[in-house]
């Protein structure tokens, strides 16, 4: 087995430089600060960092409104500082992927400024215009309730421009050959500086037809072209798509032959996972797992719990969504865009350690590569007084010192959370590092074990049925090894029975504790699971490198 598809068994950590550490005391996170914390991330077991946009930007959408694709926002440092950071990350064996926000630019981008000034501008056609306001101008908004339209009149251009997202994010005309060429140039630039790939923003919109008479055809071939270019420039680089699409469409994004995107965030599983956590009804989750089972061999799903956006529940049925709202975001101020919950993980789960462990254990053992949101490893909370998604994007809490050790400036880019339950005096890295029972230390141990379980990343899997309701049992097989993971979504103890033939061996070795199981005379394992309990077993023995016969 040639084992060089690094992304398959990676641990991805998603973060915003702006909110991580401020080294120069101006209250805003920077590359110098992040560089100092690379040891922390390496120690946690992170193998790949996803950096959210750090480019020059008016920053009206957390940097997803880019005004220069080839730079570092001065508040985060310089390109030189970026390269220093990259070098450090490389020394520690941490790969870096960066956000590629190619569907739209900022309205402050020089391209748009030029485009609006004159129909003769070479950049005019880089954007999408209409003389009259199109009749469907109030359809297809991504941020309903906040965004009123997808076509806004520009007084300078004396025309309407199309924007799928906020009005300060004009869509790029991604069918224009020059725009495509430029996108490749941007990729080439960052690849040359050492990144291992891109998290591609808003992919379904990027490849859609845009404009007044736009059809519904998606240009998947564009993804193939980008992949070709990517691997021509750097053979081991990857594309990770943000594409919240139906499971049966995902193959078009991966490419039937695996010749488009290597990775996709698994939105179908994410939504049903939260439904299962809210209700202990695992059936929709099992269905989503089956629906996303088929993928080309080199392609990989990325699983996540929370991200920097709202928890999007838009693809659940109405009654399902209402149940998740009731459990995790009961009041209107916790909900967003009529479809999601804007809270962080710990407050959603009531700061209940057992439930948090269950959720993270699932994150680490569902089929794919896990991705963590910065701060979730210590159970950070949210600040619902901040607008929209900003509530879950507060500065990282490093210590009980002023501003949580994030900055020694007078003011910080956002207030550090200071409430009695989730505030930095109580929830911070420094305290948790020194407490052997802390969530952080728990997480580090799980990540360590997860990295030693390539069965999950590489293997084939199936669900083992059990009459015990609310218990999910999965068996992975890879390279003549077998892993069995169990999760109890209910608040009562369960004791599923497993047949020797279903799990592969008489001996199941507990990978996280010392509750090994030997099959009884009838060839059955009885696994005791406490409320919200979880177990990871390897069949036959603890060491994956020793070959043992499995059935
Ligand atoms: C998806 C990003 O995750 C989100 O934060 C952003 O607002 C939109 N794309 C627009 O770029």
How much helix is in the residues? 25-40%
Terminal CA distance reads 21 Å
The low-pLDDT segments are none
Spatial strand order of the main sheet: 1-2-3-7-8-9-10-14
What's the rounded overall pLDDT mean?
Answer: 97
Major β-sheet, in short? 8 strands, parallel, barrel
Radius of gyration: 24 Å
Question: Hey, roughly how much beta strand do the residues contain?
Answer: 15-25%
Tell me which ligands are bound. 1-deoxynojirimycin
Instruction: Give the overall silhouette.
Output: globular
Q: What class do helices, strands and sheet pairing give?
A: alpha/beta
SSE map:
Blueprint lengths: L11 E4 L15 H6 L1 H7 L3 E4 L27 H13 L3 E6 L9 H8 L11 E2 L20 E4 L4 E4 L14 H16 L4 E4 L2 H4 L14 H13 L4 E4 L8 H5 L8 E3 L1 H13 L3 H9 L8 E5 L6 E2 L5 H11 L6 E2 L3 E2 L3 H4 L4 H13 L3 E5 L55 H5 L5 H13 L2 H5 L1 E4 L7 E8 L2 E8 L8 E3 H4 L3 E4 L6 E2 L5 E3 L7 E6 L12
Parallel strand pairs: 1-2, 1-14, 2-3, 3-7, 7-8, 8-9, 9-10, 10-14
Antiparallel strand pairs: 4-6, 5-6, 11-13, 12-13, 15-16, 16-17, 17-22, 18-21, 19-20, 19-22
Helix pairs in contact: 5-7, 9-10, 9-11, 13-15
The structure holds 1-deoxynojirimycin.
Provide an overview of this structure.
There is one protein chain. The protein is an alpha/beta fold. The chain has helices at about 30-35, 40-45, 80-90, 110-115, 175-190, 205, 220-235, 250-255, 265-280, 285-290, 320-330, 345-350, 355-365, 430-435, 440-450, 455-460, 500-505, and strands at about 10-15, 50, 95-100, 130, 150-155, 160, 195-200, 240, 265, 300-305, 310, 335, 340, 370-375, 460-465, 470-480, 480-490, 495-500, 505-510, 515-520, 525, 535-540. Strands 1-2-3-7-8-9-10-14 form an 8-stranded parallel barrel, surrounded by 5 helices. Strands 15-16-17-22-19-20 form a 6-stranded antiparallel β-sheet. The protein has a 3-stranded antiparallel β-sheet with strand order 4-6-5, with no helix packed on it. The site of 1-deoxynojirimycin has 10 residues, from loops.
């Amino acid at each position: 087995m040639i084992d060089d598809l690094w992304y398959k068994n990676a641990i991805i950590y998603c973060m915003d430089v702006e909110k991580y550490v401020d080294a120069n005391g101006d209250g805003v996170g920077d590359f110098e600060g992040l560089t100092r914390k690379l040891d922390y991330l390496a120690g946690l077991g992170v193998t790949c960092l996803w950096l959210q946009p750090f480019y020059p930007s008016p920053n009206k959408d957390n940097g997803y409104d880019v005004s220069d694709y080839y730079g570092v926002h001065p508040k985060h440092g310089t390109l030189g500082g970026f390269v220093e950071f990259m070098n450090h990350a490389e020394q520690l064996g941490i790969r870096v992927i960066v956000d590629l926000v190619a569907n739209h630019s900022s309205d402050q981008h020089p391209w748009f400024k030029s485009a609006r000034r004159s129909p003769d501008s070479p950049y005019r056609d880089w954007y999408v215009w209409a003389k009259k306001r199109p009749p469907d101008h109030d359809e297809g908004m991504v941020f309903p309730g906040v965004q009123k339209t997808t076509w806004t009149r520009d007084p300078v251009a004396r025309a309407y421009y199309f924007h799928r997202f906020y009005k300060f994010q004009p869509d790029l005309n991604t069918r224009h050959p020059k725009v495509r060429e430029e996108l490749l140039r941007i990729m080439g630039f960052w690849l040359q500086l050492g990144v291992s790939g891109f998290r591609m923003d808003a992919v379904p919109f990027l490849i859609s037809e845009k404009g007044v008479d736009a059809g519904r055809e998606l240009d998947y071939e564009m993804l193939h072209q980008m992949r070709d270019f990517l691997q021509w420039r750097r053979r081991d680089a990857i594309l990770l798509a943000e594409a919240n699409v139906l499971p049966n469409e995902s193959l078009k994004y991966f490419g039937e032959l695996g010749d488009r995107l290597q990775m996709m965030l698994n939105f179908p599983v994410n939504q049903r996972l939260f439904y299962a956590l809210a209700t202990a009804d695992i059936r929709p989750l099992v269905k989503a797992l089956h629906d996303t089972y088929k993928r080309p061999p080199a392609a990989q799903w990325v699983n996540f719990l929370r991200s920097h956006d709202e928890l999007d529940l838009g693809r659940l049925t109405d009654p399902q969504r209402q149940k998740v709202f009731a459990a995790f975001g009961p009041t209107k101020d916790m909900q967003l865009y009529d479809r999601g919950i804007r809270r962080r993980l710990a407050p959603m789960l009531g700061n209940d350690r057992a439930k948090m462990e269950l959720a993270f254990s699932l994150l680490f053992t569902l089929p794919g590569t896990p991705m963590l949101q910065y701060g979730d490893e210590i159970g950070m909370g949210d600040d619902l007084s901040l607008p929209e998604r900003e509530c879950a994007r507060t500065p990282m809490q490093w210590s009980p010192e002023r501003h949580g050790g994030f900055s020694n400036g007078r003011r910080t880019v956002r207030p550090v959370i200071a409430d009695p339950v989730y505030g930095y005096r109580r929830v911070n890295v420094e305290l948790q590092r020194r407490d052997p029972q802390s969530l952080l230390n728990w997480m580090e141990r799980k990540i360590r074990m997860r990295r030693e379980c390539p069965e999950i990343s590489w293997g084939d899997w199936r669900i083992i049925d059990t009459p015990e309701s609310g218990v999910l049992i999965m068996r992975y097989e890879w390279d003549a090894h077998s892993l069995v993971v169990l999760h109890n979504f209910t608040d009562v103890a369960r004791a599923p029975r497993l047949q020797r033939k279903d799990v592969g061996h008489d001996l199941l070795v507990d990978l996280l504790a010392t509750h090994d199981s030997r099959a009884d005379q009838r060839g059955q394992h009885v696994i005791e699971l406490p409320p919200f309990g979880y177990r990871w077993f390897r069949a036959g023995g603890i060491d994956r490198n020793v070959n043992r016969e499995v059935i």
